[in-house]
Amino acid sequence: MGKLRFSQVLLKISGEALAGGKDFGLDGETISAFCKDIAQAAAIGGRISLVIGGGNIFRGVSEQAAGMDRASADYMGMLATVMNALAVQDALEKQGLTTRVMSAIDMKEVCEPYIRRRADRHLEKGRVVICAAGIGSPYFTTDTAAALRAMELKTEAILKGTKVNGVYDKDPVKHPDAVMYSSLTYMEVLEKRLKVMDSTAISLAMDNKMPIVVFNMFVAGNLSRVLKGENVGTIVQGG
Ligand code: GTP
Fold it and tell me: In whole angstroms, what is the distance from residue 86 CA to residue 95 CA?
């Protein structure tokens, strides 16, 4: 097995990605394809933790939540991430991986509570740890949860799986002339207000010198390519 550029990673998958081409809910084929990629990455030596978003079911800042108290809406969003985590756990287990869902909000009948040292042990034993319910507090996004868990679990990079190939100067879906960056600094992301992750997550990654790789999760094999250090997506790092 060749040496990997990143062997310990935290992969953030948005809820919208799990919906595949649909506007809402879960798309079994998409989830199964992602999980095949995760299994492939684990097979080449990747130690993977996941943070899953919930926007395919409920998003605290969406129109659905208009008029609701923000904190209540955010808690609903966190519960949505738990549903997604269970769906991904099921799909990963079908790929033969051992997994543990750990929730930042205690719901012990459903999954384990998130305890950092316990998560470390699971990872040491080769299990995929799926972190659910964000960080358990409203006003924080699952991007921020991904950055925080990446620090706590001492991963080497945050990988953000998206529907597009990387970070562009403008929305590539709306603008066919959008140009993709191969690398960016954290400050460039913040100054240009590029939609990589929210500013809290970027700042946390910057302060802790944690690289972020944004890549297309819909291209089979891309996750392993990122682990091997192939030129895939956009890397955010450095001053
Ligand atoms: P080791 O102690 O490292 O062997 O980890 P383990 O997770 O295999 O051991 P444990 O006996 O704690 O867990 C056995 C099973 O119970 C696993 O599938 C866990 O995910 C599950 N489990 C453990 N704690 C909880 C909990 O608080 N709630 C729920 N729902 N499941 C749990």
Answer: 14
